[in-house]
Amino acid sequence: MSNHNLFVALRAAFPDDLDAVAVETVGVGGGLCYTWRDLDRASAMIANHFDSLKLPARSRIAVQVEKSVEALVLYLATLRSGHVFLPLNTAYQAAEIEYFIGNAEPAVVVCSPANFGWVSKLAFNAGTRHVYTLGDDRTGTLLDRASHHGDQHTPAQCGADDLAVIIYTSGTTGRSKGAMLSHGNMLSNARVLRDYWGWRPDDVLIHALPIFHVHGLFVAIHGALLNGSPMLWLNKFEPRAVIDLLPRATVFMGVPTLYTRLLADPALTREAASHMRLFISGSAPLLIETFTQWQERTGHTILERYGMSETIMLTSNPYQADPRHGGQFERRGATVGFPLPGVELRVVDDAGRPVEVGEVGGIQVRGPNVFSGYWRMPEKTAEEFTTDGFFKTGDVGKIDERGYVTIVGRSKDLIISGGYNVYPAEIEAELNQMHGVAESAVVGVPHPDFGEVGVAVVIARPGFEPDPVSLINGLKGRLANYKIPKRCLVVPELPRNTMGKVQKNLLREQHKHLFSA
Ligand code: MLC
Ligand code: AMP
Questions:
Q1: Beta bridge partners of 132
Q2: Number of domains into which the chain is organized
């Protein structure tokens, strides 16, 4: 019986020379080289430790730790042992973590050493039996425990449909939902991207993204591992450090904010980028100005692609001639390219009927990469899928006569700030509970660095005069820092339609120049 464990496929792609460097750390705390053998042995030791705990099959392993190569090894070990990886943004605060742990009921929680006190309390209260620490400096109880185990391990037997990862995405209403991705979802997508982006074993990836979301964890890491390609690894994105690495690398992936920050550094030149093969952008819309400036400055055309936590990657501009589209190979700015091979993508009207070429509608997708549903939320899952099995992305777009997909907006009330998703409903709920607040509306407005940021517009209770700065400060500590609105305005009234619903489009229009240069 063949084993569909994703780790087996990744391990099979390791190069013959296991003593070659797989990951080299760069920047603060960097200067270390991890070989392919190191990744194999270290993940085996952690997997052996998990096996020794005799956890039920497919136990959730929740992880909120700073980026490090050891955190990557922990991900591989979780796959290897057949358990379910549950990555959590390091920005999440106690109330957010409490919800995730309560909802996912992980058997194991791994946190930063500095957070052990409060995380372990939450976890033990929720019934988790094992809480370990993992620092970004190779410290912590997880590695201590793993060091007592052997460095050989047979990967757990998994079917393609077996759950491998849960990624929490916030909801437009209600609490966050855990998107369930299987070994098969991830491997099929990784293989498609390997071919579509022309990955080569001699590629070298600059890895500068966080590893608790789809972009940094799956698109980047699976890409490199599945090709036996080494990574130059930064625990934190620093524009100058990335530019200094370009002559040694061939592939870079970033959210648009990374590209605008790189462009702001004069050291980014055509010469500095001359060794590079491919620059890829996604997670948020890439402004056409950024696309054009990048072309002018470096001579490279950024390849923009589109995806989401529930589906991993859906569309991509072509890297080379795409025979499905008459051999077109042009990477067109402000588009997200073609549906990837195996992905069915359609644009529909409000009644769910496909629209004409060039017309705008809701984007729906189907394919081997699309998740099976939300963790323990069958009703929400049913709402998001059509009867013929297409997932409703909540993105609004169109397909032109050449087949290129363009995202023109979102039907979901969502702000994408520096590549992170911020759901206004979550922030409004917090604000509405605050002293002196009658009602609030949070909208996204353009921002030169983060693309889009949240602005809170608040109405006071009669007789109260809430202070905007105090309201913002009140949110800190309750919500992840990137969700905190960058500005708060107290106003006498909110624009409403005849039904009394707040007209967020008018608010967005009204405040669109708040952060203009
Ligand atoms: C940090 N801040 C942000 C922010 N990141 N605010 C809004 N949006 C963000 N994305 C806050 C900080 O808390 C701080 O606030 C202030 O802004 C300045 O911080 P900074 O030092 O400039 O931020 P930095 O640490 O440099 O982080 C910026 C960043 C980071 C762009 C490097 O946000 C980042 O790594 N983004 C990538 C996100 C990502 O990987 N997304 C992929 C999702 S997967 P204060 O008040 O504390 O000073 C997905 C699917 C797909 O979407 O298709 O890929
Ligand atoms: P997440 O839930 O973090 O996975 O975010 C997924 C969302 O990011 C998608 O539904 C889109 O709204 C958005 N997104 C991802 N890539 C792009 C892109 N290239 N252009 C515009 N929006 C994007």
A1: 110
A2: 3
